[in-house]
Design brief:
Layout lengths: L1 E9 L8 E8 L5 H11 L4 E8 L2 E7 L4 E2 L3 H15 L2 E7 L2 E10 L2 E7 L4 E4 L2 H11 L13 E4 L3 E6 L3 H5 L5 H11 L3 E7 L4 E8 L4 E4 L3 H13 L7 E7 L7 E7 L6 E16 L1
Parallel strand pairs: 2-3, 4-6, 11-12, 13-15
Antiparallel strand pairs: 1-2, 1-17, 3-4, 4-5, 6-7, 7-8, 8-17, 9-10, 10-11, 12-13, 13-14, 15-16, 16-17
Helix pairs in contact: 2-6, 3-5
Length: about 280
Amino acid sequence: MTGTLYRLSSFTHDPKGGNPAGVWIGETLPDVATMRSIATEVGYSETAFLGPVHAGVRTVRYYSPEAEVSFCGHATIAAGVVLGQLDGAGTYRLSTAVGEVPVAVEQIDGDWHASLVSVAPEHRTADPALVEAGLASLGWQADELDPNLPPAVAYAGAWHLVLATASKARLDALSYDFASLKALMLRENLTTLQLVWQESSTRFHVRDPFPVGGVVEDPATGAAAAALGGYLRDAGLIEAPAQLTLLQGEGMGRPSRLEVTIPASGGIVVSGTAVSLQAPVDYRS
């Protein structure tokens, strides 16, 4: 196994903000046990593992310290920034477990920016029993939800339960039963909860519990941002094309900014920057 491990924080210019991700780039993908071991060693919510280019496409897989994740947005943004730094601006095609995800990379005023295009989004109305169980784990009440954004299960590479609260105070006071929420999410095949407060038509504050990855909360979740954008468009809750800003990680002291572009059809575009956290580490075995 030969490769290099990079550590970055996505959706921020500040190493103290954003969501840290590992990016491993090598001559071939490591085996599953090795990827899990490296992800555990890195200790971030996800690490992206990129193989070499074949016919213009790189295979990528994502691992949390506990399990493989079907798709991870912030690690994809981090990977795009690394590829830009290594190989220059352009569009990089990544073959994920859920389909091909192109990542456009450019340098603006000295900073590398990456924009991923998600696979086709899906959503469905959340089952009342799921909503009730989710609210119980969160300690939320049904009358605290925003009636203008009904609960939904949304997908853009991974599934998320979307719950919108009518008040920022409710979102700010996040505290939940880790074990019960993890069990519910495993049973329902959910990657995160996308908890939302809508400040304006184009500005949202979000928080994402991630107990299935062994993490209490994710400070920036690109996959959930894409899923939210697809849900808003396809449910007729926003007029596309549209541009949204999602603010996340504030309650954790790791502020993050995700830019979401919603076209009239097709995949959702999630954009952001990433900053290096430490020097790369070479792996040789």
